[in-house]
C-alpha cells in the first residue's frame, strides 16, 4: 500500500480496515487505556530507548528490538502508522527506529491523537489481538545515526549542520540536565515546538521549510539532530525527512555529550 509519510486523520480513517496497516500508539499506558485509534497497539515511550545512564536515549540492542517488533507482528509488507499525543517526538523516534531496522513503509499521523480527536473520529478501548511474527533484525544505524566521535571528527565542517532541538535556555547553558551545560560548537538551535502548529492541533507547520531555511537548515547540507535524549529530536528528525533533508540523529544527545569529560562545549 502507498500512503504518504505525513497522513491526515481523515485519510487514515478511510484506511482503518486495511489488513496491511499496523497502527502504533506511543502515548502513555493511561492514555491508551482511556481511548486509542481502532486497531492501535500500545508501545510505551520507555520501551524504545536503551535506558542505560547516562545516555538513556541511545538505540536499544537488537534483542530488545527483535522482541518489540515480533510483538507488533511486523512483516516486510506491513505499513506502520505512528502517533502520539504530544506533537510527534515519540512518533518521530519510532520512525527513526524503523529506518534503523530497514523498514521503509511508514507514516506519521499529522497532529497525532489530538488532531484525531478534534475531527471527531472514532476511539476505542479494545486491545487488538496480534499474532507475533518472529524476527531476526539486522540493524543499520550508520545511515541514520551519528556517534559522538563522528561529530567530533566533523566539528567546523561547513557541510554539516548540527540541529539542537532543545530549549534556548538549555542551548545557552542556563538550564542544565547533565554535568555540563551549553551546546555542541557550531550548533543551530531550533526548539522542536517551534515547528508545531498550535492552531492546528500540533500538526507540522506548513512554513517549517522557510523557518528552517532562515536558520541555514536546508537541503544539500548533512544534518544531524539531537536534544537531551533523542526524544524531542525524534520530531525534528521526522520533520527533516518530510522536507527531503539528508538527516541523521545523534541518539547519545546532550545526556552523552554533556556528561563526557572532554567534549568541546559552547555557551
UniProtKB/TrEMBL annotation:
The keyword Amino-acid biosynthesis does not apply. CDD domains: TST_Repeat_1 (cd01448), TST_Repeat_2 (cd01449). SUPFAM superfamilies: Rhodanese/Cell cycle control phosphatase. It is an enzyme of class 2 (transferase). Its EC number is 2.8.1.1, 2.8.1.2. The keyword Transcription does not apply. Transmembrane segments: none annotated. It comes from the Bacteria. GO terms for molecular function: 3-mercaptopyruvate sulfurtransferase activity; thiosulfate-cyanide sulfurtransferase activity. Pfam families: Rhodanese (PF00581). Keywords: Pyruvate, Repeat, Transferase. Residues 17-125, 156-266 form the Rhodanese domain. This is Thiosulfate/3-mercaptopyruvate sulfurtransferase. It comes from Simiduia aestuariiviva.
